[in-house]
Amino acid sequence: MDSPAVAATTDFQAWSREVAAHVEGALAELLPPARNAPTRLHDAMRYSTLGGGKRVRAMLVFAAGEITGASTDRLRVAASSVEMVHAYSLIHDDLPCMDDDVLRRGKPTCHVEFDEATALLAGDALQSLAFQILAEYRLAPNAEAQLKMLQLFAAACGSRGMAGGQAIDLEAVGKSLTLTELEFMHILKTGALIRASVLMGAHCGTALGQSELDRLDRYAKCVGLAFQVIDDVLDEEADSVTLGKTAGKDKAAAKPTYTSLMGLPAAKRLAQELLSDALEAVAPFGGRARRLTEIADFIVHRGR
Amino acid sequence: MDSPAVAATTDFQAWSREVAAHVEGALAELLPPARNAPTRLHDAMRYSTLGGGKRVRAMLVFAAGEITGASTDRLRVAASSVEMVHAYSLIHDDLPCMDDDVLRRGKPTCHVEFDEATALLAGDALQSLAFQILAEYRLAPNAEAQLKMLQLFAAACGSRGMAGGQAIDLEAVGKSLTLTELEFMHILKTGALIRASVLMGAHCGTALGQSELDRLDRYAKCVGLAFQVIDDVLDEEADSVTLGKTAGKDKAAAKPTYTSLMGLPAAKRLAQELLSDALEAVAPFGGRARRLTEIADFIVHRGR
Questions:
Q1: How far apart are CA A195 and CA A149, in angstroms?
Q2: With contact defined as beta carbons under 8 Å apart, do B67 and B289 qualify?
Q3: Do A38 and B159 touch (CB under 8 A)?
Q4: B265 near A CB under 8 A
C-alpha cells in the first residue's frame, strides 16, 4: 500500500491532470476553429495555446476556487482567459525583437512555425479573446463584481503588470540590478498574472472579506516569486536536452537572476522561505486551502 | 456673412476640434504618467497615442452619443479606449515584420523612435489599458449593459475583427483578391473598430431598440468601407510630402486596393454610393444624426 505522502502526491497529480483536462477542453471550445477564416491566424492561436505547459495558472484558478466553492463551469472560463494571456505573452516574448527563442515546450515557437507577423497578431488576438470571454460568460455573483474582476485582470496584463515587467526585464539586460529591483521586475512580469489567477479563481465563488482576500494576495505574491526563484535555479542547473527550451540564455544575455545575485544555495533557501510564507498565509482556510498548499509545494519542489 | 454651407463647415470643424480636445485631455489623464516606472514603456505609449491623428473614431463615438443623449464624461472614456486600441494597432502595423513603416503622422514610428521590443510592449499594454478603463469607469446605464459593451469591443479587436483583418491583409500581399474578398478584409481590418466606435458611443446613453441599433450598424459599415475606399483613392493620388507617411507602399507591396481593382473613377463613385447609404441609414434620427451625417461627409470628401 502507498504511504500517506505518496497517496497525497498521487492524488495531487490526479487533480492537476483533471484541471489540465478541464482547461484544455474549455480552450479548445473557446478558441475559434482553425477552419474559420482567417485560418492561419486561428491555427497559430490554437498552436500556441493548446496541448502544452504545466497549466500552473489554471491550477491556481481552480485551487483558489475551492476556497469559495466556485463551480467548475466558471473556473474553466476564468482559467482559460488566464491561459490565453499567458500564451500570448510567451508568443510575444519569443519574438526575435524580444528573447528570440526558437523552442518552447519542445516545439518550434510560434513565429518559427508560422511567421513573425502571424505570431504578433496571434498574440494580439489572444489578448482580445481573453477579455471577450470574461465579458461574455457570467463568472462572478453579479455583473458589478464581474467588472471588478475584469478590471483586476486588465491591470495585471498591462504596463503596471505583465507587459511592464517585460519592459523592465528588457532594460535590465547587461545591467546590474539590486535584489529589490529584481523582485520588482518579477512581481510585475510573472507575479501579476499569478496574483490575478488566484484572485479571479476566488471571485468565481462566494464573496470573501478583505482580510481573506489579503491572505490570498500574500499567498499569490510569495508563490509568484518562488516560481521565479526556482525557474532561475532550474535554469542554472538544467541543460537544453531536459529543458525543452534554449538553456543558459539568461546567462548568455547577461540577464540578472536570483542565482547570479545570491548564488545557488541562497536562492534555494529563499524559495523555501517563500514557500513557508505562502503556506502560513492560507493556513487559516484549513482544508479548503489544500490545493493551494499542494501547488505551492509543487512549484518549489518541481523539476522541469 | 458666411453662407449656410460655410457656416455648417465651420461649425463642424469647431465641433471636431472640441472632440479632439476632449479626447486628448482624457487620454493624457488615463495613460500612465511617463515619470512612472517603467518609464520608457509609458513614454512610448504616450508618444503613440497623444497629439496626433484625425481622431475619426473618437468623433464617431461622440456623434453616436448625440443620438442617445450620452454625457461627455462617458463619451470621453469610451472614445479614449477606442483611440488606445487604434494607436496600438498602428504601432504593431508599423513594425518591421508587418508594414515596416518609419513615418506615421509625420513623426518617426514608435519602433524607430524607441525600439522594436518597446513598441511591441507599448501596443500590448495599450490594448490592456483600453479594457481596463472600460471595466473601471461606468459608461452604460448598468453593469450588465457595460459588460455587453466590453464584449462587443473585444470582439471588434480580435481575430474576427481588427487583428483578423490585419492577418488577411498580410496573406493578400502579392495575391489577387476579388472585390468581395477585399471588402471582407476591410470590414474586419478597419470596419470592426469603426462599428464598435459608433455602437459604444450610442450605448453610453439611453438604450436604443434593435431596429435603431441596426440603422447605426448599417451607417457604421458604410462609413467604414467608404473610409477605406477613400484611403486607397488618396494613396493613389498622393505623394510622400503631403501624406506624412511613406506613400505608394501598397502598390509597391502589390497589395490589392479598391483603385487597383476598380480603377480610380469607379472607386470614387463607390465612395459616393456608400456615403448615400450611410446618410439614408441615419436619416430617421433627424437632427440627432447631424454629427454622424457630417462625419460621413467629411470622410468621403477629406484630403490628407
A1: 12
A2: yes
A3: yes
A4: no
Of A64, A66, A83, A199, which is closest to residue A145 (Cα–Cα)? A199
pLDDT at B6: 59
**Residue B280 Cα, gap to closest chain A Cα (Å):** 31
Look up the CATH number of domain B4-301. 1.10.600.10
> Phi/psi of residue B104, each to 5°?
-150, 125
pLDDT in tens, A247-266: 555 555 567 889 989 999 99
In terms of Cα–Cα distance, which of A18, A131, A34, A33 is closest to A76? A18
Residues of A in Cβ contact (< 8 Å) with B38 = 159, 164, 167-168, 171
* E strand spans, chain B: 103-104, 107-108
Q: Are A243 and A304 in contact (CB under 8 A)?
A: yes
Of the candidates A97, A151, A184, the beta carbon closest to that of B135 is on: A151
- Contacts across the A-B interface (CB distance below 8 Å): 160
CA-to-CA separations, A1 to A6, A7, B236, B299, in angstroms, rounded: 10, 9, 79, 77
Determine the 3-state secondary structure of B275 from DSSP.
helix
Alpha-carbon distance of B158 to B99, in angstroms, equals 19
Considering the entire predicted model, what is its pTM? 0.93
Judge whether B173 is closer than 8 Å to chain A, CB to CB. no
Provide the pLDDT for residue B304: 59
Higher pLDDT, A303 or B280: B280
Contacts of B118 in chain A (CB under 8 A): 167, 170
Contact A287, A238 (CB under 8 A): no
Taking the Cβ of residue B228 and every Cβ of chain A, the question of whether any pair is shorter than 8 Å is answered with no
Which chain B residues contact residue A147 at CB under 8 A?
Answer: 135, 143, 146-147
Residue with the bigger pLDDT between A302 and A250: it is A302
Task: Give the three-state DSSP class for B150.
Answer: helix
Cell of B183: 471588402
The Cα–Cα gap between B245 and B240 comes to: 6
* Å between A14 CA and nearest CA of chain B: 35
Q: Which residues in B107-229 belong to E strands, given as ranges?
A: 107-108
B residues 79-98 near A, CB within 8 Å? 88, 92, 95, 97-98
Per the prediction, chain A carries an average pLDDT of 91
Residues A49, B211: Cα–Cα separation, whole Å: 39
Query: How far is residue B63 from each of residues A112, B150, B195, measured CA to CA in Å?
Result: 44, 19, 13
Residue found by looking up cell 479587436 in the block = B157
Among B124, B150, B184, the strongest candidate for a mutation testing the A interface, having the largest count of A CBs within 10 A, is B124
Is the separation of the CB atoms in A227 and A197 below 8 Å?
A: no
> Which residues, numbered 25 to 44 in chain B, qualify as contacts with chain A under a Cβ-Cβ cut-off of 8 Å?
32, 36-38, 40-42
